[in-house]
Structure formats: structure tokens, C-alpha cells
Amino acid sequence: MRDHLSGWLIVAAAVVVQFLMEVTLGRVFVAPAILVPVLVYLSLLYSDYWSIEGAMWSGLVIDLLLHQPPGVSSIAMLSGIAVAGKLLKSTTGVLEVVFVFNALLASVFTDIVFIFLAARPVGSGFGAQTLLVVPRIVFVLLLFPGIPILLGRKNREF
Questions:
Q1: Hey, CA dihedral for 2, 100, 40, 102, is it positive or negative?
Q2: Global model pTM greater than 0.70
Q3: Cα end-to-end distance, the chain, whole Å
Q4: Is 17 a residue whose pLDDT tops 50?
Q5: Which of residues 94 and 25 earns the better pLDDT score?
Q6: What is the rounded distance in angstroms from the CA atom of residue 99 to the CA atom of residue 36?
Q7: SS3 annotation, the chain
Q8: What is the dihedral of CA 79, 96, 57, 3, to 10 degrees?
Q9: Is the model more confident about 101 or about 11?
Q10: What are phi and psi of 151, to 5 degrees?
């Protein structure tokens, strides 16, 4: 129960941070995608509950806060995390490396699916602005080593 409550507090904090980054950094250049790596981290650490429930509810909240079509972020995160998980199911190695690749792939797929679904008409959002996915992911890659530290886990425990 304690892990469940602390997980929801972490997800709520990630939603708030993601929202604040979207409305500040997103207006200037591009906001890093913080929420997807946090959900991937929680799903690898605890269970797949976080990649499903966490993505569903946090995506809905982000959509409502940012005035986007409801459910688009949820569907994008669910599909991005699922595709990344399926692609990396057969990999072996250090869990931290799996986390980095899983979070990276999930972030890329999430952004691509979001661009596809959020554009009106659907699918018309691909163009030069699609390249903004690259700095979004690069910003997050710079934060990856700090995510386990921020969430209170040492590398050997992770």
C-alpha cells in the first residue's frame, strides 16, 4: 500500500512538473518529456500497473490542463510504453540500460503517436515541427541518470 501511495505521489509530481514545463519551456522552445520516463521507471521498479493506470490517468490530466483533446496523451503514452516494452522484452543486461532504452523508445513512440492523434485532421501534424521530438528526447536523456536519484533509489537497488 505504501508503494502504491508513493507511486501516485511521484506520478502527481511528474504531472505537475510536466505541465509547468509545457507552459513555460514549451512556449519558448520545447519542453522535455518527463512523464513517460517516470512511468517507465515505476513500471520497471514495481509493476506494469504504472504503465497502464499511471499513463491513463496522468495523460487525461495533462490533456485537460493543456486543453488538448481528452485521451490523446493517454493513448499516446499507453501505446508508446507498450511498443517499447514489446521491443525490449527480449533484451537482457543491466536493468538501468534497459530502463534507458525503454524510456527512450517509449518517449519517441509517445511523441509520434501524440503528433498523429492531436493534429486536426488526424495525421496531418507531421512536418518540420516533428523534428522537435529530437530535443525533447535529448533533454530527457540528460536527466536519465538523475531519475533514480530523484526517486530515492540507488543504482544497485534499481
A1: negative
A2: yes
A3: 20
A4: yes
A5: 25
A6: 11
A7: CHHHHHHHHHHHHHHHHHHHHHHHHHHHCCCCCCHHHHHHHHHHHCCCHHHHHHHHHHHHHHHHHCCCCCCHHHHHHHHHHHHHHHHCCCCCCCHHHHHHHHHHHHHHHHHHHHHHHHCCCCCCCCCHHHHHHHHHHHHHHHHHHHHHHHCCCCCCCC
A8: 140
A9: 11
A10: -90, 5
Q: Nine-digit cell at 65?
A: 490542463
| Alpha-carbon span 3 to 47, nearest angstrom | 11
For residue 19, is pLDDT > 80?
Answer: yes
In which band, very low, low, confident or very high, does the pLDDT at 60 lie, cut at 50, 70 and 90?
Answer: very high
Residue with cell 490523446: 72
Which cell numbers in the block locate residue 129?
515541427
